[in-house]
Amino acid sequence: MRKRGSLVHYFFAVVMLMCMFSSIVHGQQYTEETDSNVTANVRNGSLVSALYVLGDSSVDCGDNTLFYPLLHGRLSLYSCNGSDSTLLPQLIAEKIGLTSIRPFYSQNGSLDEVLGGLNFGSTQATIMNQGSFSHQSLNQQLRQVSESMQLLQLQLNEKTALEFTKSSIFFLSFGKEDYIDLFLHNSSSQMLNHSARYFATILVNQMTNALRYLYDANARKIICLGVLPLGCTPRIAWESNQTSDGDYNVNGCVDHVNEWVLEYNRLLDEHIVQLNAEFPDAHMVFCDVYSGMLEIINKPGFYGFEDTKSACCGLGVNGATIGCISTDMACNQASSHVWWDLFNPTHAVNSILAEAAWSNQPIPDLCRPFTIHELVNTKT
């Protein structure tokens, strides 16, 4: 399986390089026009050139996962309702005024597509590299980012490429799949013999290395999401009930699972504070979707939700036995549900989180040390 995976990624790397070479050959005739387009956003009042997204099913519905849905770890083919436009990074992109973000594997390697922003995210992607060729890990996505940034450097003059990268936003959302794997698939069951802090430290150290990697690649505006409260997801609650080891709270959430996730979020938040101090010219933001979703779950009526436990699209108890294998099986009022499928929130929840990330309303202090709106308007 690993050999086959290597061949797949090698193939796409070759294709990208061929496209890059073709662009270089014909690039001189439109370099000045391209440089002009690169700086257009700044002239129009925006301080963000593009948005580049890395992550798991929180940023990708499957459009950017090779051979999906033929190869997936569990039976839930539709992790969002319709398209990536219902997910948090795309909703934030709309607020910034960026609407042309393409999945990495749907582009042909042209400069214009890279300039428009790319989504490198892959459903079920993990921080820890587990050798899967169907779901791009954190390191694999970073390599794809590197290839794309090399294209900018080859096509644009050095100064323009540097300014473009520094004024772009890099959005990362990882960790969820690592914890799902830990609690449900047991492929990382040896971690259960250690503390929550031990496992979280392993993950956060790799995320910190990724942030340093992006900084070294001239990224200066970075958004990093925490992991949502997995103990409240329909699947985790159902699995815990099946094994009779669930310590449920009044909202039906499994406390010990949430405690593990909370440790990861706390450490990641701390490391981002340290990185901001280490790199004064960087602007790294931590967005606490964990606390944001708990706020919604604790006060569903206030935010317009009726169901905080069952998946809108799924089968079995609370829609948690089998995931969303067809959107035709979805509930009629998705906006009244907190959960779309086994592990992912609905468009309605993401919309609230996007607004809170942008403006601190209606949920304060979701993103820190400043809001996404403030990040957008920060000069690099």
Can you describe this structure?
With 380 residues, the protein is α/β, with parallel strands linked by helices. The chain has one domain: 3-Layer(aba) Sandwich (Rossmann fold). Helix content is 45%, strand content 9%. The protein has helices spanning 2-25, 31-38, 40-43, 88-96, 111-115, 138-155, 158-167, 176-185, 196-216, 234-243, 255-278, 289-298, 347-359, 372-376, and strands spanning 51-55, 102-103, 118-119, 169-173, 221-225, 283-287, 307-311, 337-339, 367-368. The strands form two sheets. Strands 2-3-1-4-5-6-9 form a seven-stranded mixed sheet. It has a two-stranded parallel sheet with strand order 7-8.
SSE layout:
Layout: H1 2-25, H2 31-38, H3 40-43, E1 51-55, H4 88-96, E2 102-103, H5 111-115, E3 118-119, H6 138-155, H7 158-167, E4 169-173, H8 176-185, H9 196-216, E5 221-225, H10 234-243, H11 255-278, E6 283-287, H12 289-298, E7 307-311, E8 337-339, H13 347-359, E9 367-368, H14 372-376
Protein name: GDSL esterase/lipase At1g71250-like
InterPro entries: GDSL, GDSL_Est/Lipase, SGNH_hydro_sf
Signal peptide: 1-27
